[in-house]
Q: What sequence folds into this?
């Protein structure tokens, strides 16, 4: 079943690959926090973003300089209402109207404001006073947008932490905390009525920190692993990101008829540096998580419960925020440095879509001088092959040949499709030995695997 589901859902990606990989991608966003004193000017950041495939930016406030700098770029902008502003907006419709007239009306549509998030992780704060004012504030902001003729053009939502779920493992058991259920249902009803997204902050990074085993790390980093079977559905999950999102989907399904409410990932990321007691905070892991996440989104495979589409996902974060309190990891999530150079490459540049994972060895092995092909090793599980397949096809190579009607679609098996994709990835990246590794599940062979009308790219250096 795995190969057929891949082939069907991947069609949309290949048809539009040339467009997506040359331009920004609406489902890839980034969080632009400002708790720092060393950030570049907004105009420089706008230019940086235009050089990438990042399609949306999330602000935690409504900084006018940033909103203006992003005008006429086409980049979607999420602006935020601070938690401290919620009481005034909830109690006074005029305050909401003033907020919209100050922060949205002067800039729209030149600045492509797409969403207003009212508060950040309010419900899991357990501040009952603030929680009770959240929905009235959202309603007043929505009414103010309607009055400004922006209803439906700019959406209204709020952002939740995964702590609003009392249960998430396995994904089919996903449930909201019973204490919060009534409030959650009211908020989601509002989002359904206004076609607004349900925004959540899933962090496999934190899941690994609470369970620092090697197999958990591979599961969290989208790397080949044995997978985890959901005992409730029989679905095998190959990464933590999908598992967390499907837990949210399950919780929404239990809450009511909310199948039309789209899930939005407001924050996810991985710290590249941390204190000595913070496990997994390495440059290699951060590059693997964000690079493989982006590849997964580009593959359009989706999750088992939400197949064939990519959830809008905002990576945390654009820059480090050097004034943030707390452990070192809190200040070490940035994809870019203040001088606009990459902290590490995850393939976001429009000029180069392939991340620099895996790491190039310091003493490279010699490239082959005879024709060779990259093939899966014997005995590799279908789950691992599916992961390899998603990774290879998610990095911009043309996987059209293994889609229905393609020259290499038959035999329609995970093994056959993965072999084609892994070899094409290896050949396309310059035939470097480290590009035929796939976490030690691949090997080079001098036997041409081409068959019938299916031709495998091959060659020497």
A:
């Amino acid at each position: 079943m795995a190969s057929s589901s891949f082939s069907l859902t991947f069609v949309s990606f290949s048809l539009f690959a040339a467009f997506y990989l040359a331009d920004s991608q609406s489902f890839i966003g980034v969080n632009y926090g400002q708790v720092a004193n060393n950030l570049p000017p907004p105009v420089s950041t706008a230019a940086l973003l235009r050089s990438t495939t990042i399609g949306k930016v999330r602000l935690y406030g409504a900084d006018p300089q940033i909103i203006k700098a992003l005008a006429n770029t086409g980049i979607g902008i999420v602006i935020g209402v601070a938690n401290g502003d919620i009481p005034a907006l909830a109690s006074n419709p005029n305050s909401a109207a003033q907020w919209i007239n100050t922060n949205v009306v002067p800039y729209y549509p030149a600045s492509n404001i797409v969403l207003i998030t009212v508060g950040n992780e309010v419900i899991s704060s357990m501040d009952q006073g603030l929680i009770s004012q959240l929905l009235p504030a959202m309603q007043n902001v929505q009414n103010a947008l309607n009055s400004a003729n922006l209803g439906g053009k700019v959406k209204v939502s709020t952002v939740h932490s995964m702590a609003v779920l009392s249960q998430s493992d396995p994904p089919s058991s996903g449930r909201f905390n019973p204490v919060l259920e009534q409030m959650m249902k009211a908020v989601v009803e509002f989002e359904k009525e206004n076609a607004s997204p349900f925004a959540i902050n899933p962090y496999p990074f934190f899941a690994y920190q609470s369970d620092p085993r090697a197999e958990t790390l591979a599961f969290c980093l989208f790397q080949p692993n044995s997978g985890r079977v959901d005992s409730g559905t029989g679905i095998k999950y190959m990464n933590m990101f999908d598992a967390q999102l499907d837990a949210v989907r399950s919780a929404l399904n239990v809450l009511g008829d909310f199948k039309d409410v789209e899930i939005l990932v407001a924050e996810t990321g991985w710290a590249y540096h941390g204190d000595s007691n913070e496990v997994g905070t390495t440059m290699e892991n951060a590059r693997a998580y964000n690079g493989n996440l982006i590849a997964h989104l580009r593959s359009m495979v989706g999750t088992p419960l939400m197949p064939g589409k990519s959830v809008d996902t905002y990576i945390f974060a654009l820059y480090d925020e050097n004034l943030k309190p707390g452990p070192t990891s809190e200040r070490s999530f940035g994809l870019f440095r203040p001088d606009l150079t990459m902290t590490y490459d995850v393939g976001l540049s429009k000029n180069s879509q392939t991340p620099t994972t895996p790491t190039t060895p310091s003493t490279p092995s010699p490239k082959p001088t005879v024709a060779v092909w990259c093939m899966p090793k014997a005995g590799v599980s279908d789950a691992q092959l599916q992961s390899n397949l998603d990774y290879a096809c998610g990095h911009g190579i043309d996987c059209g040949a293994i889609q229905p009607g393609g020259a290499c679609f038959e035999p329609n098996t995970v093994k056959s499709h993965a072999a084609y994709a892994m070899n094409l990835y290896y050949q396309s990246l310059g035939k470097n030995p480290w590009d035929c590794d796939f976490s030690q599940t691949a090997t080079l062979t001098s036997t041409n695997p081409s068959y019938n009308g299916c031709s495998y790219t091959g060659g020497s250096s």
